[in-house]
Amino acid sequence: MACAAVMVPGLLRSSVGTICAQAASLRLTSGALRHLTLTSIMKSKRKTDHLERTANVIRREVVSAAKVCGAAAESPSVKRLHLLVADKDFSFKAGQWVDFFIPGVSVVGGFSICSSPRLLKQERMIELAVKYANHPPALWIHNQCTLDSEVAVRVGGEFFFDPQPADASRNLVLIAGGVGINPLLSILRHAADLHRNRVNKGSGYEVGTIKLFYSAKNTSELLFKQNILDLVNEFPEKIACSLHVTKQTTQISAELQPYITEGRITEKEIRDHISKETLFYICGPPPMTDFFSKQLENSHVPKEHICFEKWW
């Protein structure tokens, strides 16, 4: 479940009900947060644990209380959470993850945020999507987490898209495998927010074109597909997607059919989008990220234009 960011360039929300407003009063004392953090770090000893794997990755110092204010099945194996984070010092960049501290669970989770920074700014909420696994944080989320469950979160990660208004316009190619869609959806949503802002105000960062390549086992495991298609339909001149399924056994719906390709994402599809103005963001299983990052390097894409994160 943990991730490791490897290379970075220089550089719609769902309704969750009135319970989110009621959760705004949540507070954890600094002593409780410090105890939760230190206890979890001391007990996370396995080499495969998120904290060890990301020990050298940049994190924010702020550990913030959060309350679950929405939960739903995103797919047969993935549960989506909305968390209210009232702490005004909590912020993140599109593509980053959180250390996920659960009272009573010694192992710390690591989950990418899939919502945009705008949702946090407007409603103090973040969204996560967690795949079922035999790992204590994931098991807790799937089997024990309920509305009003209290946790704590801390932002980390060097894999993000955070352009400033005066930065040069860039095209984005987003390559996702499985739950690797999570940070890339955050980036996609953030880019859409930036484009809306520029259209409405006539100023701000100018977003280039965005192409999402997303592969999963079948259409039921293509997460957030309606959210993705909504953005494609809202900004057809800016955003396009190619959804791949590798083990589809049922008929594909008429709505999805135009966007679906059966089979893996190919090297040629990615190579066709190479340009000096394009940044590539890749997130998925290690073999996938290794393959595409190597192919891009072999095609003479500058290393600073290739950003990838591996998920285990």
Automatic annotation (TrEMBL):
Keywords, in A-Z order:
NAD, Oxidoreductase
The chain positions of domain FAD-binding FR-type read 50-164
Which Gene3D superfamilies does the record match to this protein?
A: Nucleotide-binding domain of ferredoxin-NADP reductase (FNR) module (3.40.50.80), Translation factors (2.40.30.10)
Q: Which InterPro entries match?
A: FAD-bd_FR_type (IPR017927), FNR_nucleotide-bd (IPR039261), Oxidoreductase_NAD-binding (IPR052128), OxRdtase_FAD/NAD-bd (IPR001433), Riboflavin_synthase-like_b-brl (IPR017938)
GO CC list? mitochondrion
Q: Which residues form the signal peptide?
A: none
Q: Which domain of life is it from?
A: Eukaryota
Q: Which Pfam families match?
A: NAD_binding_1
SUPFAM superfamilies given for it? Ferredoxin reductase-like, C-terminal NADP-linked domain, Riboflavin synthase domain-like
MF term (GO), any: oxidoreductase activity
Q: What is this protein called?
A: Oxidoreductase NAD-binding domain-containing protein 1
Native species of this protein? Panthera leo
